[in-house]
Every structure is written in C-alpha cells, then in structure tokens.
Amino acid sequence: MNKTAQELFYSLIGDAAEYYGANPALALAGKQFSIEAPKESVLLGAIQQRSNFLEKINCVLVKDIKGQLIYGATEKGITGRKTDGRYTATLDASGYVYECQPTDSGVLIPWAKLDQWGHLKDKFASLYAEFVQNQIALDMIKIGFYGTSVGTDTSDPNLADVNKGWIQFVRENKATQILTQGATSGEIRLFGEGADYVNLDELAYDLKQGLDARHRDAGDLVFLVGADLVAKEASLVYKGNGLIATEKAALNTHDLMKSFGGMPAMIVPNMPPRAAIVTSLSNLSIYTQEGSMRRGMKDDDDKKAVRDSYYRNEAYAVEDCGKFMAVDFTKVKLSSGKGTWK
C-alpha cells in the first residue's frame, strides 16, 4: 500500500476497534475481536442492506446454537366458541429446528485497490465496507439456494458444502415440497413439445398448487426464478411473436417477465439459473448466534493485500415448509428445439 492508503487503513481499524469496544492495540496487530450486542445487530443490518433480497427476508440473532424456529408454522385456527366456557386451541409448532454452523468469510483486498480508494480519502471507509459487505451478502444468498451439506474443509465453487440452505432444509423436513421429476424419471422438462411445463406460467401455477391449501391464496407469495429459465421464456416469446430487433429493444424483458402464475417474479443474484420456487420472502430466514461474531483486518505482506475476515455461527431455515414449493434445479432440462433435452 502507498502511504495514504496505509494511514487510512490503520485509521479504519482503530475506528472499528473503538466502535466495537475492542482492544485497539490487538486490533491494529491484526487480531480477531468479538462483536457483542447491540453492535451485532448493527453489523448484521449493514450486511442485509447490501441486498434488496436480504432486506426482505428474516436475518435475525438467536441465543442458542440449536433450537426451535423463531417464527415457525402452526397448523390450525384458533377461533370458535364453546357452550361451557371460552374457546381455546393449542397450537403445536412444526417441530423443525435450526442448527448454526461455524461460518468464515475471508477476502483478500489487493494493495492496488486500496491505493485507488486512498485517492478518495473521505470515501475510503465506505468503499471498504461496501466491498466486503457486498461479498458477504452475495455468499449468504448463494449458500441459501445451493447449500446441501456442512463440510469440514469446503471446496465447492457454489458454496454447497458451507451450510444447508433453504432448499435442503425443506428436503430434509418435508421432502414432498421439492419436485424431483415429471413424466420422465429424474427429469423436469421445460418448454417445447413433450415438456412437463410448456412455459413458466404453468410451472409457477403448479408449484403454487403444491403448497398447503391454507397458503395457496396468500397475498405475499412470490415466484423466485432462475435467470436461465427467464431467458429461455423471453426468447420463445420474442420468436413466437416474430419481433424484429428494434421491437425487442422496446419490449423490456424485465417488464415482460415480472409475474408468473399470478405472482410477482424475482430473479435473485446468485440464485441457481434453473431454480424455481414459490414461497413468501418472510418465510425464509438466516439465523446468526449471538456472541459468535468475530471481525479482523490485517495487512498481509506475503499476499500483497489486506486480509479481512468475518466469522460467525449461522443457520438457514424455512419457517413453514408447507408454504414452500420448489423444483430440484439439478433435474431441470430445457428443450434444445431438436427433440432433445439438456
């Protein structure tokens, strides 16, 4: 780092240590420091605000590393009457549990990038925070959709072995809510002749019908859909209407694809390109255990970079599995237009 960037970086560490109540000398030496309440909520909120999607789901702190879901699901109504007293009903929770796993986000920020930020002195701290928190937010989303296991030494490029995400949570707790095949064993065929679903409206509607009956008409349902599926649908619409290039430009793909099956559609960053899910955003949760957060920033001469780390215990949960229906995106096949599927 050049002198300006170095001064700004160490000033940033000092300010962070003071804000979080850490020992400044240890923080400046590159040691990890704990983040305690209420600052935990501030950091979690800052990360959440880096993503429009994360802002709309539940990102909450929990006391225990393992336990019952915070919101959970109930299976019956509580309203009625009795001739011999007041009417009451006992609501049994779903019984689903969360379990936080050690989660370590670490990124190397090259000296060259820090030097660039150093030219914008007043913006150095905000640029640094934005860079790190954006990366963390994107990873949280990716784990939520791709995660299938908790590995000891992780290596999957899609972070599938970091933690069990939302789809895996439902797969393990209510497997009927994950569609694994259509008419052909082991495949879900979309678009074209002989497809299980000829368009995304059909798919979205069928997934909605797979929800528990009490949720099918919920006003907060959304259709989370992967970019490959939307691109294929848009291509077929353009081709079917014989649109020329200028007409295609005028017909905004985002507007064209903003709803399916009577539900608003969302394409989420880092979502599997062939995924399709019907749920409500308030049904998706990420839990972080209180007292588990650690932060650290260190200049690494060997890497010619700054090492930033954020450690915590984290879990993914679907509060009501009956309000979640998805395809197994690894089984989705698209028509090639030549009678084959890939």
Automatic annotation (TrEMBL):
Pfam families named among the record's database cross-references: Phage_cap_P2 (PF05125)
Show the NCBIfam families listed in the entry: major_capsid_P2
Report the protein name in the record.
Phage major capsid protein, P2 family
